[in-house]
Amino acid sequence: MVQGNIERMKTSTVIFSAANLFGIFLYCLFVAGISWQVQKEQRDYDFGDSLKLIFTAVPVFFLCLAMDVVWSVMALVAFYRQRDYHEAGALLIISAVWVLAILFMREMP
Predict the structure, then answer these.
(1) Kind and range of the H or E element at 21?
(2) Scanning 5, 9, 64, 102, which has the fewest C-beta atoms within 10 Å of its C-beta?
(3) pLDDT for 48-79, tens place per residue?
(4) What 3-state DSSP class applies to 6?
(5) Segments of 30-104 assigned E as strands
(6) Residue 28: its pLDDT value, please?
């Protein structure tokens, strides 16, 4: 059953999922790097840290968000034309992983 579902997944779904997982990895890496640097220097966040966040993690997030908008349109088209819900399911799972990653990064000291 699982083998059939994996084979059934479209190449676009795999590409969008992999790109999003890589984006989540980069986002977490950038945010954690800024947080660890602040902790290492034992100081409060300042304007420079905000700039680092704006120029590293935020573009990754918005690039993945734009990619997910395209993916959601493709999923809607696939659902209405072929009644194929696999793309929509994968999109929901990746969106949930994004939400968990953002919530986890917010809880970092």
Answers:
(1) helix 11-41
(2) 5
(3) 888 999 999 999 999 999 999 999 999 999 88
(4) helix
(5) none
(6) 96
